[in-house]
Amino acid sequence: MSGGQSGGRDGEKPVERRIPGPRPAADDRETLPPVLSGAPEPAKPPEPGPPGPPLPHEVLKSLLGAWALAACSAEETAAVEEHLTSCAPCADEGLRLRDAVGLLHTDGTLDLDPMLRSRVLENCLGRRPARIPLPSWAAPYDAETARLDALLRDIGDAEWHAPVRLKWFEADRQVNRRTTVAGVIGHLMAVDGLVSAALGLDDPLGKADGGSPPPTPTGRTEAYWAAAHHPPTRAVREPWRDQSHALVRTVSFAGRGVAELSVPYGSFALPLQDSLLERAFECWIHGGDIADAVDYPYEPPAAAHLNRMIDLAARLLPGVLAERRRAGLASPARHLVTAGSPGRSLHLEVEGRGGGDWYIALDSPAALGSPAHAVAQVALDGVEFCRLVAGHVPPVEAAAGQEGDREAISDVLFAAASLSRL
């Protein structure tokens, strides 16, 4: 290092090395003012005696840490600094220790970034090799149950009783139901039981009053909550986690044909691959509900998984729109759908993470939407669209951009909100 002294051996002429003085110690004090008149003068410190013998190299080396912290006595400080002008290794070590002490006096917080754990988990979940050959269509469910389980592992016993409001739309109005964090996990487990039953696995509800469990998601949830003799606690986490693991293992070993297995939801049914995607969506949405209740950072799904969830909702919209039309909740079809005329379409442009373009058939659930017959366009953020589908955002507040047939736009936005349920 330039500016210091090196050598001192084999007759080399030592070069002066400048070492900064130690930082002032935290307990240093200024000289006290003289005592009031009339009081005896303080005794003068004794005159310093003759200097003692020089300290050995090993002793001076052992004092470097205390010197860097300004914890040496005046005599020790003088001896160390004198030694640093003639010993290059100790001078280098002293400078390193002085720099290290500077790091201890930072004004920045030593707390970890609260998002660090989420980023590490997301990276691990995206990179970890599958122990078994997991089908690509089951990957969103596997990832979202793992993310939610990580959240549940972090919260304390009291937070399992934190209040949570579940929101969804019924008859074009937003409704809600109050439960707890443990109640939300019980709800997810009860509805996941529809998939378990379709695969021949144990149903977590067993037999309800000696008969079969209710066939609908809402009925199953109400049955689970009513059967509990006391509010659910964190004990619900283990059976929910075991159930999700069993589902993933079963579909991984079942072969390709299982993807089209029908999973009944009461008034409708979904192929198994869409059903697990729908369960991944619910797991993410309710994971966000729990995270809001316990003040926990929670990110949206990976872009590829979010894109699949949006695609599922877009594919379901024509059927939901037809049901609303039959119930008098949507405007009637305007064009006869034939082989040469598929009817009108709405261009759904989803921006941001998981985004893309979809064309929603407006006049028949069996028709395919096409750009050539688009009469309106709606632009939304990907996460915002999913919040609309989950019933967390009113349809009149959801669209970031609208163009074209206003009636068609309103019908599609309300149909999207109608996809939500308890």
Task: Tell me what you see in this structure.
With 422 residues, the protein is of the alpha+beta class. The protein is 43% helix and 11% strand. The chain contains 13 helices and eight strands. The strands form three sheets. Strands 6-5-7-8 form a four-stranded mixed beta sheet. Helix 6 (139-154) packs antiparallel against helix 9, helix 7 packs parallel to helix 9 (237-253) and helix 10 packs across helix 11 (303-326). The protein starts with 56 loop residues before the first helix and ends with a helix.
Q: What distinguishing features does this structure have?
A:
Znf_put, transcription, two-stranded antiparallel sheet, 43% helix, 13 helices
Quick synopsis:
The protein has 422 residues and is α+β, with helices and mostly antiparallel strands. The protein has 13 helices and eight strands. Strands 6-5-7-8 form a four-stranded mixed sheet. Strands 1-2 form a two-stranded antiparallel ribbon.
